[in-house]
Amino acid sequence: MISAALFYGFSAFIIIFALAVLFAPNPIVSALSLAATMVGVAGLFFALGSHFIAAVQITVYAGAVMVLFVMVLMLFDLKKEDAVSAMYVRFLKISVAGVILGLISGAITLSGFASNTTIMSVDTASVTPTKKLAVLLFTKYLLAFEVLGILLLVIAIGVVSVSRIKGGTHAKS
Amino acid sequence: MPSLESISQIGLNHFLYLSSVLFVIGLLTVLMRKNLIVILMGIELMLNAVNLSFIAFSSYAGDVHGQVIVFFVMTVAAAEAGVGLAIAVAIFKKFKEVEISFFQKLKG
């Protein structure tokens, strides 16, 4: 069972920094807020008993991916503010997001998870150890794991070759 | 009006609501912002929201398979961020800007 104070504390942390990603005019502030959001999500993973995934979240997302984002932002040296779309376009976008939020929340409410929350509470004895995850990863999901390794190799080569592209058909200079 | 017990007892639905709010914030980031890199950050937010709901389901059902899927999603998301940023660098080299409106001028 997860304590309510822990859950609400992490939720407030996550939502505040996610809103900072959305509203911060400076992309660097957005990137650092995103890193903070990911740390908060990792805390919730830890609270839910998946310790290995929480550690991977910190090292891969809050570490490697965010460093990549911040480094590319520094490379660009962006000073210009975001252009703002027309009023009706913004209204349309916000209402689409609101409709999606309403649909998802309605589906969660109607699905019956709300009525049996006490039955489906986390049992601390059944918290899955990392060993179980590792065994599953290297037996049932071995092929997927290896394919993922090949994918990462292809991506690494592809990223280098794409970022070395010069000019093209209609370059400015 | 939710009862006091549903507020103090944290269940699966609480995590799902949090996940949906996080997903919609990421969606709004993708829709509202014009900077290509901030749009990629919005995609990362949406992936994180989905990962959170995966972990919540896996934890409440006592099943490890959800964690394996989250592991794979994280790897693919890292790869996707790398490719997206490489394309951003290529766009920046051509136009000296990373505004999303420049994608309208691409001729294929």
Could you explain how this protein is built, in words?
The complex is a heterodimer of chains A (173) and B (108). Chain A is an all-alpha fold and 173 residues long. Chain A contains 6 helices and no strands. Chain A has helices at 4-23, 27-47, 51-76, 87-110, 130-139, 142-163. In chain A, helix 1 (4-23) runs antiparallel to helix 2 (27-47) and helix 2 packs antiparallel against helix 3 (51-76). Chain A is globular. The termini of chain A are far apart. The model of chain A has no long low-confidence stretch (mean pLDDT 83). Chain B is an all-alpha fold and 108 residues long. In chain B, 77% of the residues lie in helices and 0% in strands. Chain B is built from 4 helices and no strands. The radius of gyration of chain B is 18 Å and the shape is elongated. The chains are: A mainly alpha (173), B mainly alpha (108). Chains A and B meet through helix 1, helix 2, helix 3, helix 4 and helix 5 of A and helix 1, helix 2, helix 3 and helix 4 of B.
What topology does this entry show?
The complex is a heterodimer of chains A (173) and B (108).
Chain A: H1 4-23, H2 27-47, H3 51-76, H4 87-110, H5 130-139, H6 142-163
Helix pairs in contact in A: 1-2, 2-3
Chain B: H1 4-8, H2 12-32, H3 36-61, H4 65-95
